[in-house]
From TrEMBL, chain A:
Cellular component aspect of the GO annotation: plasma membrane
Protein name per Swiss-Prot or TrEMBL: Xylose transport system permease protein XylH
Region (Disordered): 408-435
Lineage, opening ranks: Bacteria, Bacillati, Actinomycetota, Actinomycetes, Micrococcales
Membrane topology, record value: Multi-pass membrane protein
Automatic annotation (TrEMBL), chain B:
UniProt KW ATP-binding keyword: yes
Membrane topology (UniProt): Peripheral membrane protein
Keyword Hydrolase: no
Organism: Labedella populi
This protein's UniProt keywords: ATP-binding, Cell membrane, Membrane, Nucleotide-binding, Repeat, Sugar transport, Translocase, Transport
GO MF assignments: ATP binding; ATP hydrolysis activity
Domain ABC transporter: 8-245, 264-510
Compartment annotation: Cell membrane
Name of the protein in its database record: ATP-binding cassette domain-containing protein
């Protein structure tokens, strides 16, 4: 292993998808730094960071669900409409029926789940392509939103706005910072260090290959420093603002869904179905259930995103959520999700979403109009996926080959001795031939 | 026939794929107006040879010479070979189901001027061409609305339209019933009378015996011999001897079988084709497996071996009609794959890349993927256990990789197969069904896989091995069933299994007494 590949490992274990993520992460850092200079330091100010989180948390929440949908080999075009539909129902329930806002949130999640069950049914059990089902859903639920809301804005009560426009409260002594935000930042650093230590310990127990100690330390120090820096920025804003509640919801979801996709059986099954559904079924995976789950889960998250949005806007309207699906899909693809499914991570999609967010934000700060912002976003999406496609055409995941020098003691493919049999006769034989 | 001039000669054709020498110094000579059969086991190199001839593998990618009508030819692609009058009809028909017969016949060859098709002319010629192959169907009929037999004839009509002089048919009757087959064979003989020579590849030796004028036998990518059918006494036995003639070397680890009592039994297993309900892919098949026994299933491609295995393994293929499965004397239900896994069945598919593995995954995740529950607490997968288990298999099966974090797509075929075996061994099966376990694997790795199979049997598990390679089956198995057209035709003990007898039972429904 050369020194360079160790450096790369600071941002990932050296596996294929993390290598891709490391590239995206570097782009994100570069974008933030470029705009930091270009805007004379406006990008990394408390007020701006808080605004970015407030504006993009719901898109990032959608990206979490979207990456799972895409990994399983589907797509969801309906998320914007589902968010708007859920939003209007929740707003109406509070305005017309005086439903208490905590119950209204539950109601919103249930509405999302029902819509998800509807779409999941068509995708998983009838076999209609998700593209079609959700295109239909996009129309149905947009229309539903406008029908129920009669195309007027429905305001939401004060208490409800906390999930979209609320901040961590001020507690403890006056330090000039928001104490709770600082504490959360410190806790996050401790968690990162603990996780690194724990994984090293178990790796040592198993006697498996470990990254050098300095890589681990560098990883904890760099990530920890970034987290602390961000914490001080968020905590140091205008009094009354701090880390937004919607950001907190986002972080909790990212942690939970990262765990779900990486460490649970259902998570494994999502990758298995997206990677090779035939092989998955022959391994006992019930792929219909998996497809149903990802579609349903997406709509629940869309419902949540819709509620956060109307909480921030203070009212539900007929144009809520327009174009969200495209932002969420773009975030997933920029974040290294494979177009054909089977590959992708929640954290990658979040990084991809942040790339879009900071591009958007930075361009606005330097005074670019919405027209230019769209053009740049489009080009970035195209470029990111083009890189992915190019890498695939060069043999799967050759991005690793670019970064990683040839292993000397790599998988010692025995030089295959010439035998009989041709690649043609090694095709799927009897199963397909008779069709 | 011997007096006829040679129309085609392929001289010393050698074709290599990365790591595989598919053809080595193969020569064949076809005379004008004859039906020339090419025989050989699966993987012997027949299809590769035909792809070289038809330009699928263009000049320059093989060594050797093709002399056609006394001139050396160098085909760049299929178009150039077709222009010379050599047309190949593949086993999987190249017709477009949603287009009409006329449209298919003239596809890529449309009559007309300046890009505008003259449909009147096309239809007129289509009717004439159809008449030549004995079809009286409306040329506007869509291909999907006519049977496979007629589709095959449309393919030939399409070839006739191209002014064919040499017709190559790859397993033309594999999907046809007896009537349609006979009609097709008659047509081929009829074309011969009109000066069109044919090369036919077929596993059905009785058909070859019936229509071929000469037979070239290929084995292990080499020409073994050319038999003149009309000149001498060539019969099925003679052909089979040529096809399987290699000796059984000691390619297998030593083993003393310890076979226990019957623990797995399938009775009257009948399954329909998933798309064509009137076709039965398994016809009333019954068999048994004993503890610690390796049972071979011999059959040619398309005989219904995989269909049998997959339909038993949680009904993953076809439509279940009837049949019972007994394990340890009790009837068990295998309605889906997870039930089959829970009942202690494992199926290692014949196509490791599209059915056996998720090529995007790494080794450790692949190994545990068929029984994640075994290393999970609740829903949460213990990834440290996963790593440890995968590493154990890496050592015990000698999977050649630096770590189990490596992606399976980076492994060689043999090592991928070991990962698949590990995946199914991890499910603790009582019965393993291994479908072509050594396909596309080099000799050294084969020996190791044989060793693993024997170990599994030694642990008291039942093992079913499906293979096209008779020497492999004979070398491994304690007992062999032969399958032909969805039926179990015979059963042989390891002592009585001879390649010729097996091949006979694999190509006809004749009983053992006749076969012996």
């Amino acid at each position: 292993m050369s020194g360079f590949s160790d450096v790369k490992k600071i941002f990932g274990g050296g596996t294929t998808s993390t290598a891709r993520q490391a590239g995206i992460l570097l782009s994100l850092v570069a974008i933030v730094l470029v705009f930091q200079f270009w805007t004379n330091g406006l990008t990394l100010t408390p007020g701006n960071l808080i605004a970015v989180v407030n504006q993009y948390s719901y898109i990032l929440i959608l990206a979490i669900g979207m990456v799972m949908v895409i990994i399983a080999g589907h797509i969801d075009l309906s998320v914007g409409s589902v968010a708007a539909f859920t939003g209007i129902i929740v707003a109406k329930a509070m305005a017309d029926f005086d439903l208490p806002w905590p119950l209204a949130i539950v109601l919103g999640l249930v509405v999302g789940a029902l819509i998800g069950a509807w779409q999941g049914f068509w995708v998983a059990y009838v076999g209609v392509p998700a593209f079609i089902v959700t295109l239909a859903g996009m129309l149905i639920f947009r229309g539903g939103n406008q029908y129920i809301g009669a195309a007027t804005a429905v305001p939401v009560p004060e208490g409800f706005t906390v999930i979209g426009a609320g901040y961590l409260p001020e507690i403890g002594p006056d330090t000039g910072y928001n104490n709770l935000t600082l504490i959360l930042g410190f806790l996050a650093v401790v968690a990162i260090a603990w996780r690194e230590w724990r994984s090293r310990r178990t790796q040592a127990e198993m006697g498996s290959e470990m990254v050098p100690v300095w890589v681990s330390i560098a990883r904890v120090v760099i990530i920890g420093a970034v987290v602390l820096y961000a914490a001080f920025l968020f905590a140091g804003g205008r009094v009354g603002t701090s880390f937004p509640v919607s950001g907190l919801i986002l972080v909790a979801l990212v942690v939970a869904y990262s765990f779900l996709t990486r460490n649970t059986i259902i998570g494994r099954h999502i990758y298995a179905v997206g990677g090779n559904s035939h092989a998955a079924e022959l391994s006992g995976v019930k792929s219909k259930r998996v497809n149903f789950f990802v579609m349903m889960n997406m709509s629940i998250l869309a419902g949540l995103a819709g509620m956060i949005f109307i909480a921030r806007a203070g009212a539900s309207g007929g144009q809520d959520g327009n174009g969200w699906e495209l932002d969420a899909i773009a975030a997933a693809f920029i974040g290294g999700t494979a177009v054909a499914g089977g590959v992708g991570t929640v954290i990658g999609a979040i990084i991809g979403g942040l790339v879009m967010a900071f591009l958007n934000n930075g361009l606005q700060l330097v005074g670019a109009g919405a027209d230019l912002v769209q053009i740049v976003k489009g080009l970035v999406l195209l470029l990111a996926v083009a890189i992915d496609v190019y890498n695939r055409s060069q043999g799967r995941f050759s991005i690793i080959g670019i970064f990683r020098p040839k292993r000397r003691n790599g998988p010692s493919d025995q030089t295959p001795t010439p035998t009989t049999g041709t690649p043609d006769t090694a095709k799927p034989g009897a199963v397909t031939v008779n069709n | 026939m011997v007096d006829q001039p040679v129309i085609l000669e392929m001289r010393s054709i050698t074709k290599e794929f990365p790591g595989v020498k598919a053809l080595s110094d193969v020569s064949i000579a076809v005379r004008a107006g004859e039906v020339h059969a090419i025989c050989g086991e699966n993987g012997a190199g027949k299809s590769t040879l035909m792809k070289v001839l038809s330009g699928v593998y263009p000049y320059g990618t093989y060594e050797g010479q093709i002399v056609y009508q006394t001139e050396e030819v160098r085909f760049r692609d299929i178009r150039s070979s077709e222009a010379a009058g050599i047309v190949i009809i593949h086993q999987e028909l190249a017709l477009i189901p949603e287009l009409s017969i006329t449209e298919n016949i003239f596809l890529g060859n449309e009559p007309g001027r300046g890009g505008v098709i003259n449909w009147k002319e096309a239809k007129k010629r289509a009717v004439q061409l159809l008449a030549r192959v004995g079809l009286r169907d409306d040329p506007d009929t869509l291909i999907k609305d006519i049977g496979v037999g007629k589709q095959q004839l449309v393919e030939i009509a399409k070839a006739l339209n191209k002014d064919v002089k040499l017709l190559i048919l790859d397993e033309p009757t594999a999907a046809l019933n007896e009537n349609d087959s006979q009609h097709l064979l008659d047509l081929i003989v009829g074309l011969k009378g009109k000066g069109i020579a044919s090369i036919i590849i077929s596993h059905k030796l009785n058909e070859i015996e019936q229509i071929a004028d000469s037979i070239t036998i290929i084995r292990d990518g080499k020409t073994i011999e050319t038999l003149d059918v009309r000149g001498g006494d060539v019969n099925e036995d003679r052909i089979i001897r040529g096809m399987v003639g290699r000796s059984l070397q000691s390619r297998f680890p030593d083993r003393t079988p310890h076979v226990g009592e019957v623990f797995f039994e399938v009775k009257n297993w009948t399954v329909q084709h998933p798309l064509v309900p009137e076709r039965l892919v398994c016809k009333n098949e019954s068999f048994t497996v004993r503890k610690g026994e390796i049972v071979g299933f011999a059959g040619l491609m398309g005989a219904g071996r995989t269909e049998l295995a997959m339909s038993i393994f949680g009904r993953s293929y076809g439509t279940f009609v009837e049949g019972q499965v007994f394990k340890d004397g009790k009837e068990i239900q295998l309605r889906n794959v997870s039930e089959a896994i829970d009942q202690g069945l494992a199926y290692v598919s014949e196509d490791r890349k599209s059915l056996g593995l998720n090529l995007l995954d790494d080794i450790k995740r692949s190994v545990v993927s068929a029984k994640l529950g075994k290393i999970s607490r609740g829903q949460v997968v213990d990834d440290f256990k996963e790593h440890a288990i995968a590493d154990e298999y890496r050592k015990s099966l000698r999977i050649k990789t630096p770590t189990v974090d490596e992606g399976v797509s980076k492994l060689s075929g043999g090592n991928q197969q070991k990962v698949v075996l590990a995946k199914w061994m991890f499910t603790d099966p009582d019965l393993l069904i291994l479908d072509e376990p050594t396909r596309g694997i080099d000799v050294g790795a084969k020996f190791e896989i044989y060793g693993i199979i024997q170990q599994l049997a030694a642990q008291g598990k039942g093992v079913i091995v499906i293979s096209s390679e008779l020497p492999e089956l004979i070398g491994l198995s304690d007992r062999i069933y032969t399958i032909f057209e969805g039926q179990i035709t015979n059963e042989f003990t390891s002592a009585e299994a001879e390649p010729e007898m097996l091949m006979k039972s694999m190509t006809s429904t004749s009983k053992k007494a006749e076969a012996a």
